[in-house]
Amino acid sequence: MIVAENVEKRFGDALVLKRVNLRVEPGEVVTILGASGSGKSTLIRCINGLETLSGGKITVDGHDVSTKAGLVAARRASATVFQLFNLYPHMTALRNITLAPIEVLKLPKAEAEARARALLDKVGLGAHADAYPQQLSGGQRQRVGICRALAMQPRYLLLDEVTSALDPEMTGDVLRILAELAADGTTMVFVTHEIEFARHISSRIVFLEQGELIVDLPTAQFFAEDGGLAVRRIRQFLSKMKKD
Q1: Which end is more exposed in the chain, N or C (fewer Cβ atoms within 10 Å of the end residue's Cβ)?
Q2: Any idea where the domains of the chain sit in the sequence?
Q3: Residues of the chain with pLDDT under 70
Q4: Cα-Cα end-to-end distance for the chain
Q5: Does pTM surpass 0.70?
């Protein structure tokens, strides 16, 4: 379980997360929505320890990410897929995927490569194991990024706007893979502007507004027309996203 308790994050004088409380149970897909600058990506970066907290506490399966030992354990339990791929350009797709399992999990090279090839096959990239990132399209690179995360066999998958740099066709390919992962029971925390996709795969929707978590609802209730969207700000947000 991922638990955020009264989480605060400051950048200088700016308070970008304001006493955020969130719980993610195993098997859930929790989508974080909100306007640009609302703190969505910052929250993801706090969960995986890429940003230090200014206040409050985050634990992953009971491990406090603010401690060195807790962060190591939390990162073994979770993996992050970033919006800009972050692949090593001098390594093949296969090597990008096997690096952490070999170095961190101490898997034998043959076992790590077998796992990586199986993942590449699953996302339709089995023939591209020896390709370098510059030889792949944006959608293909993002699929390699997802494989790299899954190769660590994480209990939690953190996804930060993974389709924002992709064209519509590539976006569709990546979203189909994520939908399959959700159907298989993968626990995900998903920051996105893909509203219809969020409606389709999410267990719950969390809405951030200027660093505050103002709504945390089951997906059907969040999108309901009979009062589930009582907060005017959320109606405005969804209306704008439909127009965009």
Answers
A1: C
A2: 40-194, 203-244
A3: 85, 165, 225-232, 241-244
A4: 35
A5: yes
